[in-house]
Inverse folding.
């Protein structure tokens, strides 16, 4: 972390960058927030540890509108999101100085199953095999680092950055689960079970739009669900259809563009496993049209703006 | 003071639900929210905070106002029924009860919101003291005593025993209905619990936030602070904070085309949204900084200015827990305390 | 609120016998905005139309729904009627209550209910119809033909004869193309050069034709009627105005190593060369890769001998930019590479040759001066084996899945010519099928078999094995006799599959013309628009669209020319107003829409927008309405709904859905 | 809405202008009957059909939605139906995943010459949807009263 801070200070002081987009210490160990640092002094509050899960790439849309270059720290998986935004002309590469930072798996405070957490030690020097020491109002607890990791880190895309100006820090491969296992589990259910499963999950949705607003692929200036373009502007969770429409269409709109960064599931206040929608599309795309990873490059045609003459027919494989 | 063993609570719920609708924290798909009790529902009174506050029961996220039916070229307008069936909210925490007081200021002052007023009249609040307050709790700052919350009935869960104390007429009436399930007891265990809770509350990191920089006088003073420009940056413009908040009361009114007519409904709106209070000419707050500022200025300055100093935050800490960008009212208050003018 | 009139047609009894038209009228009057509804026996008749006209006047209608037959029948009629009466034609919608209702349903109640719903959907849509106006764009009265083979020459001549200027761009030093390499042509056996050369001369001397040889198309922009094309004229190092075509330079040139492309590499040429004697223009080019002077700075012999002083080593490539109204692609073909067909020993033995190489060998101007001889030892072959379908009709990825179409006929021609000229030479042809549809084609083939004694064997060849005595052992199979054949041959000729010229992909991309999996250019409709590409203003001529023989190529070239003439004859083009349009306030500039546009109609520009008081520079999609054909692919790619299709807008379709489902 | 003997499904059929709409016309002029439950919406090309339209139909009370376009390779706009094919493949797969009965959605390629196929397709589709009964999993309850 010190290394990152020093490098950021250096670049800021030299005038090479006008600001730094990084993570700022919170009130507690875990409530780290994304932040633009405009001065060397302000970087005192810079932090980089296991709680820096937030993907900063979407903030680069706004950064591109500001004067001068912005230094941004991107984790390997964040760099895919940035690349996808670049491909869609939503960010200006000229106005970014990208430091690819090492990542050893990121934590979720909601995965630490204790009441009254006061502090969490061990987040800054992550080693997957180590434990976090958690001070709570009601005593000291420990939890394995791995058990407190975000879902996306268990199915990590790898240690490589797909776009950067320089690299700092080591990454660890944290994969210990099959990315599509949960999708497959649902696919194997009967239609009634599937319906019941999603009905239960989606009935929690409060239409807060956190999933949409955090999503680097959902970068529309005006979302269809906020506009009259389709006569479909909605704010309400009036009937269960509203959530289905919203989540199906949202997943469809990001199909072939979603890098599976997992931010939607991370931020959902109701803990809805929203990545299961996106991953279903990713799985289908991989199976039907060949393996595709959004954001991995700028050239490969996206699956939904491409075709082959002998593509599968809709509904193929149905009983 | 009465008591009932935890294992008998299901019988208590059944007894209440026999006549009235019973809302209580229900766990579904891993999350706890207030919901209607049924035999199948998984009641969860151990979880301190429901994701959404109990506000939803009195001021639903979406509610129908009236319906227009068109048939053979004729219109038929039908207003929504006001709530007529008594109901009980069980397990509401002190902060949420305080939240109701804030909502009352808005909806019960003239012109009275008849939908809300009807529900308030029909609803009985069975509050519950917070045995294990959370780090994010700061209700003390707003004068809430979570060891002895307000409500029609107050309950304390101590070990496996739920203590029950009716406080109002409504509370007494409810107590009478379920009297056969309750056992009279003295208040000693409850008193000890209150001391316990208050001791923990004292130790909570946000319990001693200072509101000196806030209140009616802050309306002009804090508006132009350069701090807003720094504080808002991580804001995603989602509505999480507003939708989990027990006091946010803004709503939008919309029409739904049912094919044969229109259903006019209202639904929660969020001042974080870019189309909040959108008018024909555009929006009077057209940057996220302005929208962000609005939310906190409203809670901490404008609302007290219009409501005898009452803040429209109750310190429940839900926004502290749920904000995807880890922004929250505590950070705002602290920033102004440290650097504000 | 629109003032809508609903007109329900009886269509005699076609509709009225099954649909209660009075009920439809009655129900229409209950719909929002409907201020007039009536029924009439024949709405499309003069009298019916006068009812519509009267209602437009009397009731100030600004939307019309006609419940009648399919819009494919009379939409144009009713639109014209509206226009004549001062109403924008796009404010008319048709509810198809005949083909989609009365004709397929028996039960009157059921059919009437459905007709009412179809009427409602049309009313709901017409509420949202916007008055659209077809745009106009001017037409540049000049055509570009890419490729100077027989297809390009014929197209250019036909266009030029109609009075329009045509430019031919040919990448080789001369026009003439593949046909100039052929010896004789089937089924008449006339000499290829004899019939081609006059056409070449005619093109060269035509006042309306400009020929750019040794040139390539570099860049294309614009749209139908208004293309702007950059043409790269490659450095020739010979001043075309000065050169007299005397040929002394080629004679004196000391660099004689480069393979002669025109003779398929079977012999060599000089560094300064014209590909063949009848070349047009008859001006040589210097092959910079082989020229000693250009490589080392020493030599300069050609310059010394050129009395006209035409040699100019300092020449550089030149870009000329020209406007065109129409572009014809006539890029032709080449034979496929045979490196995946090792079993035929091509490249291993000099006596295994392709049919096109045989053409050069048989040609008097070819490497052997027209004598049929083995390239290995110069001996006359006594046994020749022809192998058909080398790379054609191939099911694996070594060759092409299609039939190259010309091989059966030219092989019959070769066999016949050889038997005619060298009666003691035996000719055997291994074939899968002999395909000879075409005027006088089968007769021609039968002559080869019956009159000339060519030995046709139905079966494939598995291997050609060069023997130590210089002969070739052909391992074949006779499917009719069901036996293996081992045949000793002196020469083996491969009927090699043809494929589109390798440049076609680059050209298709520039023109946004689509190509199929075999790199043939796609036609706008396989049956009904065979010489038009899906991109308006781009036409197809010759083998670039699919395998063809000469008569077919010439016929298609003429057809393409007619299409071009039809286009250039117009002063203005009316554009389809149902085109896509981007809402600048919603557009993200993400460029996904351009990725699915088959016409290249979408571009992006950065401009300042005023989004409710926020002024900022944004990248916005811009649709060129002259190019857009209105398919709507872009609209679904657009996540924000910024891209919409006029006449079939998101809200219009949703209004129809709502009306049907309510 | 209870399933009764008299229940009739609402079926929306999106047909491309160049092939399938003409195919439907041909079915009509050939008097090839199919149930009146089917209501056709004309679109220029199958690629014009947005998944929003299909969900919208279900929201408002459709019991089945079918999309018809030119056969792959025959698209009037040369490539439109290829995009439609991918889009619908993914959308239908998602609807299956959510537990919506798979018989409620279908894509069929019908040329202008295939009046018989159009009619047969509609007959079999309507029969399938009738077998499934009313759509409750993807409807908005407000449209039901």
């Amino acid at each position: 972390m010190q290394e990152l801070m020093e490098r950021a200070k250096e670049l800021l002081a030299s005038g090479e960058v006008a600001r730094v987009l990084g993570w700022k210490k919170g009130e507690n160990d875990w409530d780290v927030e994304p932040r633009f640092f405009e001065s060397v002094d302000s970087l005192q509050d810079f932090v980089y540890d296991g709680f820096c899960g937030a993907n900063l790439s979407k903030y680069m849309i706004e950064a591109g509108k500001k004067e001068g270059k912005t230094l941004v720290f991107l984790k390997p998986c964040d760099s895919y999101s940035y690349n996808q935004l670049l491909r869609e002309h939503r960010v200006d590469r000229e106005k970014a100085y990208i430091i690819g930072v090492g990542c050893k798996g990121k934590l979720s405070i909601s995965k630490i199953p204790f009441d009254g957490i006061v502090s969490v030690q061990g987040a800054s020097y992550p080693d997957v095999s180590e434990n976090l020491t958690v001070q709570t109002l009601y005593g000291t607890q420990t939890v394995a680092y791995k058990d407190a990791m975000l879902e996306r880190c268990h199915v990590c895309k790898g240690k490589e950055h797909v776009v950067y100006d320089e690299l700092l820090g080591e990454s660890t491969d944290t994969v210990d689960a099959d990315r599509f296992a949960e999708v497959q589990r649902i696919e194997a259910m009967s239609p009634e079970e599937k319906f019941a499963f999603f009905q239960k999950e989606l009935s929690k949705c409060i239409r807060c739009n956190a999933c949409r607003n955090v999503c680097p692929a959902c970068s529309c200036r005006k979302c269809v669900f906020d506009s009259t373009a389709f006569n479909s502007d909605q704010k309400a969770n009036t009937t269960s259809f509203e959530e289905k429409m919203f989540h199906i269409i949202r997943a469809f709109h990001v199909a072939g563009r979603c890098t599976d960064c997992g931010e939607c599931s991370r931020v959902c206040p109701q803990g809805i496993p929203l990545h299961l929608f996106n991953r279903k599309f990713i799985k289908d795309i991989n199976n039907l049209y060949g393996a595709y990873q959004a954001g991995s490059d700028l050239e490969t045609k996206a699956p939904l703006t491409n075709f082959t003459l002998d593509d599968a027919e809709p509904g193929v494989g149905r009983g | 003071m009465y008591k009932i063993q935890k294992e008998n609570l299901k019988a208590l719920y059944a007894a209440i639900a026999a006549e009235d609708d019973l809302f209580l924290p229900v766990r579904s798909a891993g999350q706890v929210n207030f919901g209607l009790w049924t035999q199948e529902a998984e009641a969860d009174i151990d979880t301190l905070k429901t994701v959404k506050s109990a506000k939803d029961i009195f001021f639903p996220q979406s509610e129908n106002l009236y319906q227009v039916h068109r048939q053979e070229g004729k219109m038929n307008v039908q207003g929504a029924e006001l709530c007529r069936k008594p109901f009980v909210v069980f397990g509401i925490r002190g902060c949420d009860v305080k939240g109701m007081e804030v909502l009352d200021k808005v909806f019960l002052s003239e012109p009275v919101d008849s939908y809300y007023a009807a529900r308030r009249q029909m609803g009985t609040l069975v509050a519950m003291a917070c045995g294990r307050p959370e780090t994010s709790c700061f209700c003390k700052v707003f004068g809430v005593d979570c060891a002895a919350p307000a409500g029609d009935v107050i309950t304390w869960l101590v070990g496996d025993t739920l203590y029950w104390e009716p406080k109002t007429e409504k509370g007494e009436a409810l107590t009478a209905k379920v009297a056969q399930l309750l056992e009279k007891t003295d208040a000693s265990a409850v008193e000890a619990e209150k001391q316990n809770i208050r001791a923990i509350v004292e130790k909570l990191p946000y319990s001693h936030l200072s509101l000196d920089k806030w209140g009616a006088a802050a309306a002009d003073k804090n508006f132009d602070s350069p701090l807003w420009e720094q504080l808002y940056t991580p804001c995603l413009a989602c509505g999480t904070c507003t939708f989990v908040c027990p006091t946010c009361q803004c709503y939008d009114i919309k029409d739904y085309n049912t094919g044969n007519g229109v259903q006019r409904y209202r639904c929660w709106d969020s001042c974080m949204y870019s189309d909040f209070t959108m008018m024909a000419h555009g929006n009077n707050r057209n940057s996220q900084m302005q929208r962000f500022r609005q939310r906190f200025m409203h809670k901490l300055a404008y609302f007290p200015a219009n409501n005898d100093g009452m803040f429209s935050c109750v310190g429940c800490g839900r926004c502290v827990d749920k904000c995807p960008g880890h922004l929250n009212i505590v950070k705002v208050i602290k920033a102004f305390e440290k650097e504000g003018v | 609120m629109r003032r809508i009139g609903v007109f329900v047609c009886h269509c005699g009894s076609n509709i009225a016998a099954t649909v209660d038209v009075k009920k439809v009228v009655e129900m229409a009057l209950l719909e929002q905005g409907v201020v007039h509804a009536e029924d009439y026996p024949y709405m499309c008749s003069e009298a019916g139309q006068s009812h519509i006209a009267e209602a437009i006047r009397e009731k100030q209608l600004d939307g019309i729904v006609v419940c009648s037959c399919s819009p494919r029948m009379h939409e144009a009629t009713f639109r014209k009627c509206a226009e004549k009466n001062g109403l924008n034609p796009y404010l008319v919608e048709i509810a198809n209550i005949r083909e989609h209702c009365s004709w397929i349903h028996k039960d009157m109640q059921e059919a009437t209910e459905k007709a009412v719903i179809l009427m409602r959907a049309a009313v709901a849509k017409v509420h949202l119809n916007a008055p659209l106006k077809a745009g106009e764009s001017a037409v540049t009265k000049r055509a570009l033909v890419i490729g100077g083979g027989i297809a390009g020459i014929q197209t250019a001549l036909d266009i030029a004869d109609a009075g329009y200027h045509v430019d031919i761009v040919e990448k080789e030093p001369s026009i003439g193309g593949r046909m100039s390499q052929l010896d004789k042509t089937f089924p008449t056996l006339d000499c290829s050069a004899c019939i081609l050369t006059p056409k070449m001369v005619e093109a060269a001397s035509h006042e309306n034709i400009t020929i750019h040889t040794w040139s390539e198309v570099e860049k294309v922009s614009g749209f139908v009627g208004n293309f702007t094309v950059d043409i790269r004229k490659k450095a020739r190092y010979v001043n075309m105005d000065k050169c007299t075509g005397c040929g002394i330079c080629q004679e004196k040139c000391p660099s004689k190593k480069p393979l002669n492309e025109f003779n398929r590499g079977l012999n060599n040429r000089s560094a300064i060369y014209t590909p063949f004697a009848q070349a047009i223009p008859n001006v040589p080019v210097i092959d910079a890769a082989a020229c000693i002077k250009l490589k080392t700075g020493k030599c300069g012999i050609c310059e010394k001998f050129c009395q006209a002083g035409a040699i100019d080593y300092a020449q550089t490539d030149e870009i000329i930019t020209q406007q065109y109204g129409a572009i014809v692609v006539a890029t032709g073909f080449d034979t496929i590479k045979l490196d995946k067909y090792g079993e035929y020993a091509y490249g291993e033995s000099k006596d295994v040759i392709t049919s096109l190489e045989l053409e050069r060998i048989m040609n008097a101007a070819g490497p052997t001066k027209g004598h049929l001889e083995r390239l290995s030892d110069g001996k006359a072959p006594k046994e020749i084996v022809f192998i058909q379908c080398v790379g054609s009709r191939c099911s694996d990825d070594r060759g092409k899945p299609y039939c190259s179409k010309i091989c059966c006929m030219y092989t019959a021609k070769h066999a016949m010519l050889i038997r005619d000229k060298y009666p003691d030479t035996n000719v055997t042809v291994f074939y899968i099928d002999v395909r000879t549809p075409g005027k006088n084609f089968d007769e021609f083939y039968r002559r080869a078999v019956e009159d000339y004694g060519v030995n046709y064997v139905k079966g494939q060849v598995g291997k050609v094995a060069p023997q130590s005595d210089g002969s070739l052992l052909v391992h074949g199979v006779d499917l009719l006799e069901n036996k293996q054949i081992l045949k000793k041959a002196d020469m083996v000729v491969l009927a090699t599959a043809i494929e589109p010229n390798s440049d076609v992909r680059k050209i298709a991309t520039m023109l946004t013309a689509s190509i199929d999996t075999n790199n043939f250019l796609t036609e706008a409709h396989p049956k009904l628009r065979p010489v038009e590409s899906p991109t308006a203003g781009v036409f197809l001529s010759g083998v670039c669209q699919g395998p063809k023989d000469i008569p077919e190529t010439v016929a298609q070239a003429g057809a393409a020319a007619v299409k071009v003439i039809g286009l250039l004859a117009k002063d203005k083009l009316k554009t389809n107003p149902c085109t896509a349009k981007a809402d600048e306030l919603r557009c993200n500039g993400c460029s996904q829409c351009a990725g699915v546009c088959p016409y290249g109609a979408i571009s992006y520009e950065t401009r300042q927008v005023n989004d409710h008081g926020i002024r900022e520079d944004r990248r916005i999609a811009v649709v060129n309405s002259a190019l857009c054909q209105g398919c709507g692919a872009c609209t679904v790619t657009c996540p924000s709904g910024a891209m919409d299709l006029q006449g079939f807008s998101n809200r219009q379709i949703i209004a129809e859905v709502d009306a049907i489902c309510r | 809405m209870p399933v009764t003997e008299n229940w009739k499904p609402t079926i929306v059929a999106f047909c491309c202008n160049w092939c399938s709409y003409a195919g439907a016309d041909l079915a009509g002029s050939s008097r090839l009957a199919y149930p009146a439950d089917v209501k056709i919406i004309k679109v220029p090309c199958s690629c014009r059909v947005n998944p929003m339209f299909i969900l919208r139909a279900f929201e408002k009370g459709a019991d089945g939605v079918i999309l018809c376009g030119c056969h792959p390779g025959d698209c009037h706009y040369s490539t439109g139906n290829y995009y439609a094919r991918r889009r619908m493949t993914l959308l239908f797969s998602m609807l299956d995943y959510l537990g919506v009965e798979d018989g409620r959605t279908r894509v069929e390629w019908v040329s202008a010459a295939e009046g018989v196929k159009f009619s047969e397709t509609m007959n079999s589709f309507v029969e399938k949807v009738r077998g499934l009964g009313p759509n409750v999993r993807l409807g908005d309850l407000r449209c039901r009263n």
